[in-house]
Write a structure and sequence with these properties.
Number of domains: 2
EC number: 2.6.1.1
Pfam families: Aminotran_1_2
CATH superfamily of the largest domain: Type I PLP-dependent aspartate aminotransferase-like (Major domain)
Strand content: 15-25%
CATH class of the largest domain: Alpha Beta
Keywords: Aminotransferase, Pyridoxal phosphate, Transferase
Radius of gyration: 26 Å
Cofactor: pyridoxal 5'-phosphate
GO molecular function: L-aspartate:2-oxoglutarate aminotransferase activity; pyridoxal phosphate binding
Largest sheet: 7 strands, mixed
Bound molecules: ligand KET
Helix content: 40-55%
Length: 467
């Protein structure tokens, strides 16, 4: 808090305890019924010039912030869980909040292939000059090829605008800025539920959004009819946000047949599909299989937006490396879109960081490293599948109520959507020290085989004993 010398000019000027923006800008801060005038930014009200004119006037030293009118923001529903976890001293605590991969020992994991790529980079002694606004050319090529396949006609025809972004979030934000500028009033439709940050991103970019039905709590599955009906009912030319694979938080993906029908409706209504691909390779263990949804739309010749992230599949969370791709119907349109993405990026963050981009380019560009990455990704995806199975087995063995827990096995990716409500999720944390998001999502990537039984006890208690 900034410390200011204040002149107490009037003890009766205002009865309003609130701080108005106007007052704040003029350097005046109203506190209760006392009107303080800061001497520092407003020369006319300096204590030296404050003249007594029948009013009480004295100089006092008080800690008063210009930010008095700013309320405390609530903790982030996902990243705030990690903060609460760190503050807990109980030795049984378990962090199943954020989607970040841990080893069986519950330690963060740096992929071996990443360390090898970093060693290569050190050996080469690469410089730290600014990247171009669109990012590292070798990364942009590699990331688009990974998404669509190197032999995809879109690549050959130069119909894709790829710009390196600040991981998945930054890439989504850049795409939102493009929508806000060039499609004013167009709506983005997001699934209900979706990753919590989607709404924040569109709100901050001033892009209107609404939800389409996705999760059906009765079947603990996809509400396909509802989804299709809502996409159909959206104003023509809407952006339809789709999770490329491993839907977060539900872990429920459409089947290949359902993807075809979703593409039909989107095409019929002239909507623009907008994919968020944060888990390529993490859902099935195969990069190609997990990109099948996007490739299906591309094969129809549709124009598509795709945000990519390397946080999970290469474990590059803190490097903030990802991309925004816009597949266009012509190379000419792609060139123009790319120029505008650069124009939007320049005043926001100028140009992206180089380290993560070089790691991805080195790994994907070297056949041996690429092979090693795929093997490590399969290992990570496999460990998550193992804990998924063990959690299910533990629940079935311990819970004698006859409840069907098989949905846990059907879900895909890092998460399990347990169906626990807010109160039950709070019980998981308050009583069992299991940290998770309040929507009932648990990150299986933060679970070990050794902790599955403990977690099953916590879930059974919360599910049956808390309403
Ligand atoms: N999309 C989805 C669907 C997603 O789950 C995440 C991250 C991102 C994009 C962005 O990740 P980035 O690190 O910006 O590339 N999700 C996890 C972390 C977070 O909330 O930031 C999570 O859901 O736990």
């Amino acid at each position: 808090m900034a410390s200011s010398m204040l002149s107490l000019a009037s003890a009766s000027a205002s009865a309003s305890p609130s701080l108005s923006l106007h007052d704040n800008l003029k350097g005046r801060v109203k506190l209760g019924s006392v009107n303080f005038i800061s001497c520092l930014p407003d020369k006319t009200s300096s204590s030296a010039k404050a003249k007594p004119s029948g009013r009480i006037s004295m100089t006092v030293g008080v800690n008063v912030s210009r930010f008095e009118g700013i309320a405390m923001a609530p903790p982030d529903p996902i990243l705030g869980v990690s903060e609460a976890f760190r503050a807990d001293t109980n030795e049984k605590k378990l962090n199943l909040g954020v989607g970040a991969y841990r080893t069986e020992e519950l330690q963060p994991y740096v992929l071996k292939v990443v360390k090898k790529a970093e060693n290569l980079m050190l050996e080469r002694g690469e410089n730290k000059e600014y990247l171009p606004i669109e990012g590292l050319a070798a990364f942009n090529k590699a990331t688009a090829e990974l998404l669509l396949g190197a032999d995809n006609p879109v690549m050959k025809e130069g119909r894709i605008a790829t710009v390196q972004g600040l991981s998945g979030t930054g890439s989504l934000r850049l795409a939102s800025a493009l929508i806000e500028r060039y499609f004013p009033g167009a709506k983005v439709l997001i699934s209900s539920p979706t990753w919590g940050n989607h709404k924040n991103i569109f709100n901050d970019a001033r892009v209107p959004w609404s939800e389409y039905r996705y999760y059906d709590p009765k079947t603990v599955g996809l509400d396909f009819e509802g989804m299709v009906a809502d996409v159909k009912a959206a104003p023509e030319g809407s952006f339809i946000l789709l999770h490329g694979c491993a839907h977060n938080p539900t872990g429920i993906d459409p089947t290949p047949e359902q993807w075809e029908k979703i593409a039909d409706v989107i095409q019929e209504k002239n909507h623009i599909p907008f994919f968020d691909v944060a888990y390529q390779g993490f859902a099935s263990g195969s990069l190609d299989q997990d990109a099948a949804s996007v490739r299906l739309f591309a094969a129809r010749g549709m124009e598509i937006l795709v945000a990519q992230s390397y946080s999970k599949n290469l474990g590059l969370y803190a490097e903030r490396i990802g991309a925004i791709n816009v597949v266009c119907s012509s190379a000419d349109a792609a060139a123009r879109v790319k120029s505008q993405l650069k124009r939007l990026a320049r005043p926001m963050y100028s140009n992206p960081p180089v380290h993560g981009a070089r790691i991805v380019a080195n790994v994907v560009g070297d056949p041996a490293l690429f092979g090693e990455w795929k093997a490590e990704m399969e290992l990570m995806a496999g460990r998550i599948k193992n804990v998924r199975q063990k959690l299910y087995d533990s629940l079935m063995a311990k819970d004698k109520s006859g409840k069907d827990w098989s949905f846990i096995l059907k879900q895909i990716g890092m998460f399990s959507f347990t169906g626990l409500n807010k109160a039950q999720s709070e019980n998981m944390t308050n009583k069992w020290h299991v940290y998770m998001t309040k929507d009932g999502r648990i990150s299986l990537a933060g679970l070990s085989l050794a902790k599955c039984e403990y977690l099953a006890d916590a879930i059974i208690d919360s599910y049956h004993n808390v309403s």
